[in-house]
Amino acid sequence: xxxxxxxxxxxxxxxxxxxxxxxxxxxxxxxxxxxxxxxxxxxxxxxxxxxxxxxxxxxxxxxxxxxxxxxxxxxxxxxxxxxxxxxxxxxxxxxxxxxxxxxxxxxxxxxxxxxxxxxxxxxxxxxxxxxxxxxxxxxxxxxxxxxxxxxxxxxxxxxxxxxxxxxxxxxxxxxxxxxxxxxxxxxxxxxxxxxxxxxxxxxxxxxxxxxxxxxxxxxxxxxxxxxxxxxxxxxxxxxxxxxxxxxxxxxxxxxxxxx
Length: 259
Prior knowledge:
Blueprint (H helix, E strand, L loop, with lengths): L9 H11 L1 H14 L2 H16 L6 H10 L5 H14 L4 H10 L5 H18 L5 H11 L12 H9 L1 H17 L21 H17 L5 H16 L4 H15 L1
C-alpha cells in the first residue's frame, strides 16, 4: 500500500494472506525486507516473532526474511529485530544471536534494545553462547553500552555477570579510545565502576590490575586517564569477592620479592 495510514492494518492482512493467499504472503515476505517502509517491515518482523513463539515453526523463507531485514538501518527496524531476537526467539539462542550479530545500531535507542536482548540471552542461555559472539555484539554496540546514568547499567551488567572478561575488555577498550581522542565528544558516562561476575582467571586479573595501576599512578591526578583506570581496578577487585584485594596484595608482594 502506498498510503502509510494503511500500515496499521498490515498485521491483519499478513495473517489472513498466510492461509488464504499463500502466494501473496510469499511475495510480501520476500519484498518487505527490501522495499517495505520501516513501519511495514517492523510489522512483518513482529508477526514472525509472534508466530514463532506461538508454536508455528518459521519456514526457510521467513527466516531469510529476518536475516535480510538486518541489512536495514532504520531505528524502527533495528529495534524490532533486537526485540524479537531477545524475547520471541529466546528458545533458540543460537538463532537469536545470529540475528543480533548482524545488527549495527545507528542510535542510542537501537543500541539499548540490542543490549537488552543480549542481557536477556545471557541470563537465560549463557552456556549456549560463544564468548567471541558476545565480544562481537558488544563491539557492534560500541560506546552506547555505557548509559547516561549508572542506574541504567542493568542490561550491561546482566551480560557482565555471565561474560565478565568480555565486558571488561570491551569497556577498557572504550576508555582507551576515549583517552586517545580527547577532542571527540563522548556522550555517555565513562569512568564508572562496573559490576562484573567472577572472571576465574587470577593471572589475567593480576596482569590487568598491575598494568592499570602503573598507568594510573603515572597519570595526572584526578584526570580522566587516572579515574577510569581506578574504576576498572575496582571492578576487577570486586569481581573476585572479598578475597580479591587480599589475594592481589599478596601476589604483588611476591612479584616485588622476585624482582
